[in-house]
Amino acid sequence: MATEGASWKEEGRPMRVLRMVTSNDGKAREFAEALKGMPFRLERVHGAYEEVQADTLDEVAMMSAQDLLAAGDIPRPFFLEDAGLFVDALRGFPGVYSAYVYRTVGWQGVLRLLQGATDRGARFESRIALVTTWGEVELFAGTGLGTIATEAKGEGGFGFDPIFVARGEARTYAEMPLREKERVSHRGAAVMALKARLLAKRPL
Ligand code: ITT
């Protein structure tokens, strides 16, 4: 397990470290950008944790956090995120199976499943699980509504970004700069809730 991160100081005192556990470089980039300016030094842990399988993202995020907590290898506080793409015409599939579907058939597979479908509604969901110094797990949720495009577009982003168009947008996520995706995305909404928690006057 490797960690990386820049070192900043505030008023001469070292800043507290907040670790983010993810194997996904695209996600790590988005979190780093969204958490810029927060009074924490964000350090990435290339998380080699087994993603548990469960029926809901809440359960996956909660159980993954508890597994990491029980293993005790990562200094607290830390957070991880579980995300998924839920397609209306597929009754929410791939949902909690998004990582597996992406690894096996990619966004191309989702486009194929929707060939000829008129209902292109979909949403991304994000659940961030924050593990406090005391070993409590707090969940933060975000939803990003949109549609599945009829063809892939854009070079940016990661995962299913080339085929997802946020509500009210003409571009896919892969065509949007990081900050603009954050404004409309599931992760942006969940991070906003996380930031409020990080700034709250409650022990972390
Ligand atoms: P972790 O190590 O952080 O778990 P992961 O890639 O397994 O990384 P998730 O299980 O949270 O991430 O995500 C499930 C799948 O959905 C995965 O293939 C991601 O690439 C994809 N995904 C998640 N967030 C996305 C986003 O903002 N845009 C496009 N695809 C996304």
Structure commentary:
With 204 residues, the chain is an alpha+beta fold. Helices cover 30% and strands 26% of the residues. It has one domain: Maf protein. It has helices spanning 25-34, 57-71, 98-104, 106-113, 178-184, 186-199; strands at residues 3-4, 9-10, 13-14, 16-21, 40-45, 78-87, 121-131, 137-148, 164-166. A seven-stranded mixed beta sheet has the order 1-5-4-6-7-8-9. The protein has a two-stranded antiparallel ribbon with strand order 2-3. The longest helix has 15 residues, at 57-71. The two termini are 24 Å apart. Bound molecules: inosine 5'-triphosphate (ITT).
At a glance:
The protein has 204 residues and is an alpha+beta fold. The protein contains six helices and nine strands; from the N terminus they run ββββαβαβααβββαα.
Name the quaternary structure. single chain
Estimate the global geometry from the Cα principal axes: globular
CATH domain topology: Maf protein
Number of helices: 6
Cofactors and ligands: inosine 5'-triphosphate
Biggest sheet, spatial arrangement of strands: 1-5-4-6-7-8-9
Mean pLDDT: 93
Estimated radius of gyration? 17 Å
Strand content: 25-35%
| Helix coverage percent | 25-40%
Kindly give the count of domains.
1
